[in-house]
Amino acid sequence: MKKSRAIFIDFSIFIFFFIMISILAVWTTNYNYILKHILGLILAIFLYYLFSKINFQYLLKFTFPLHIVSVILLSMVLIPGMGITVNGAKRWLDLGIINFQPSELAKLTLILYLTSVFYSSIKRKNSRRNIYNSRKAFFVSFITAFLILIIQRDFSTAAFIFSFYLVVYFIANENAVKLLWGGASMVILVIFFILNSNSYRFQRIKSWIDYLAGNTEPVLQLKYSLLSLSLGGKFGVGYGGGEYKEYLPASHTDFIFSVMGEELGFVFLLFIMSLYVLLMYKIIRIIKKSSYDYELYFLFLGGYLITAQAAINMGVTVGLFPITGLTLPFISYGRTSFLIFMALMGLMRSVEKEIVRRSF
To answer: Where does the protein end up (predicted)?
Structure first.
């Protein structure tokens, strides 16, 4: 059987460079995690290969139960003895041999469920018989997941998944009034959450706003991040020679971009950013060759998740966004995040192969 060609650059090339960068980054930021990280990378590569073999259209039939499973897992985090609290937020589930972050899985299952719901709704396929693929069923399950994330104090992920709904409304050319209502609702929820949040979170947002307004100095994490980036210059101080990674509390996750900037310089950071830009360009190229709406929705939402989360993580390191706790996709340490992003990439490869197959 003839191997399906890649559109533009093969996904495996992106994976190779991301993994090499990730190993270098985690090794220098926290050597104690490198063995766990490499084992996670091996499993992630296997997941990519496995998901690239899945029939994507067939998978859409199971998006509702998959999403419900992720909501159940999110709920289990709130159970005493199972949920792990870090920095005031319950985001991890203790599975004994590994700590799992259900919110990362929820991102993927929500993308799949959104794809299925909007495709079924627009094409009017089984819209009366299959209530699980109705927008009412989606709205109920979505709000449930959103509220659970708010209770867990994982607001960055909650806001992120809310934006998925706005994005799919936009690309589906839905009623602009509904889009505006959705955006307004999100802003109101943000304001409500900030005003009713604990003092630590409120002060963190307030400090960020004051910093942008030029009224105060940046918070300690951002201060060290900016110093780290400025010290790196064009070509860095040398791999392993970073001074400020010892002071950054999440140097191997939230601020891994800063550490790489200090040690390998701005030129290397440009290379990292170009990988995300080229990956999104590849996804757009695949979308242009697509013949079905479900492929369009999935690819666009998947590309949005990767590039938007990367942009937010990088923006945090220079003060454009408040500290969110979102990892840098394919690079930061975080086994759950890496596994989910590689599974997402595998599904994109599956869609790409199907599009190439139909072209010949």
So the answer is: Membrane
Residue at 6 is within a domain: no
Exposed (0-12), middle (13-18) or buried (19+): which is 116, by Cβ within 10 Å? buried
pLDDT given at position 282: 97
- Degrees (nearest 5) of the Cα angle 70, 316, 202? 75
Establish if 4 belongs to a structural domain: no
**What is d(CA 178, CA 159) in angstroms, rounded to the nearest whole number?**
18
With respect to residue 66, please indicate whether it lies within any of the assigned structural domains: yes
* CA dist., res. 288 & res. 74, Å (int): 35
User: Residue 98: in which H helix or E strand, if any?
Assistant: none
Across 76-90, 95-109, 180-194, 225-239, least confident range: 180-194
Query: Does residue 2 form part of some domain?
Result: no
- 135: pLDDT strictly greater than 80: no
Q: Which domain holds residue 207?
A: 11-358
Rg (CA), the chain: 21
Alpha carbons 222 and 39: distance in angstroms, whole number: 31
Could you report the per-residue pLDDT of 164-221, keeping only the tens digit for each? 877 877 777 666 566 666 666 666 666 666 555 555 566 666 667 766 666 666 777 8
CA proximity to 344, closest of 290, 286, 304, 293: 304
Tell me the per-residue pLDDT of 226-257, one tens digit each, with 9 for 90 and over: 999 999 999 999 999 988 888 888 888 889 99
Total number of domains in the chain: 1
User: Cα–Cα distance between 228 and 265 in angstroms, integer?
Assistant: 10
Q: What is the pLDDT of residue 183?
A: 62
